[in-house]
Amino acid sequence: MVRFAPFAIIALFFLASVTSTAHAHGVAEGDKGYIQETSGFLFAPFVYLGAKHMMTGYDHLLFLFGVIFFLYRMKDIGIYVTMFAVGHSVTLLFGVLADISVNPYLIDAIIGLSVVYKALDNIGAYQRWFGFQPNTKVATLIFGLFHGFGLATKLQDFELAPDGLILNLISFNIGVEAGQLLALGAILIVMGFWRKTPSFWRYAYTANVVLMTLGFILAGFQLAGYFIA
After folding, report:
1. How many domains, the chain?
2. 186 lies in which domain range?
3. Is residue 33 one of the residues assigned to a domain?
4. What mean pLDDT is predicted for residues 128-148?
5. Which one, of 38, 55, 160, 37, lies nearest residue 97 by Cα?
6. Does a structural domain hold residue 204?
7. How many C-alpha atoms does 38 have within 13 Å on its Cβ side?
8. Chain-centroid distance, C-alpha 83
9. What does the pLDDT look like over 94-123, one tens digit per residue?
10. What is the pTM of this model?
């Protein structure tokens, strides 16, 4: 049963992507109403919202799944996850504080393509096609920046009051990091079991092809939403 777990997870992500609206970073009406009816520094609610967004953000989780797919040492995992966190933290704070408006469909399409990029990287496509290996740490940081703008578009939907804005943004980012660590822990547990079975290397290529396909689907949904909206 263990060897099928990663495919079950990917299938769940797929079902989430095809049954959700095209706008991956939409705001739940209940959450939006609560935030807009309150003011000032709200630590716990924004931590909750940040964690909720990361735990239910299948696009972010698919990218993280691709990033750690072939990472075994906790030191390496820590480096990549930190670079991803730094990237999305910078653009999350900068995007909201500077009131930079980015079309949510386009930014989410880029996030979908980041999943495609990582899947292709995992199967060695760039070495075969172009004869060189892109710097994976730099790529993770750059895509982290795009993911941060995706998070910023969510917060901008709340139409946040200036009272306590910076502290609320920091609280939201703390929640995002907490959610990321929880999700990463679950992924690592599943991957740890799977890597101990013969099926890991047998199906690793197929898993990344599925991951790439889901990335294209996510990007396609967002581009369709952009042109239709």
Report:
1. 1
2. 2-9+42-228
3. no
4. 91
5. 160
6. yes
7. 16
8. 13
9. 988 888 878 889 999 999 999 999 999 999
10. 0.83
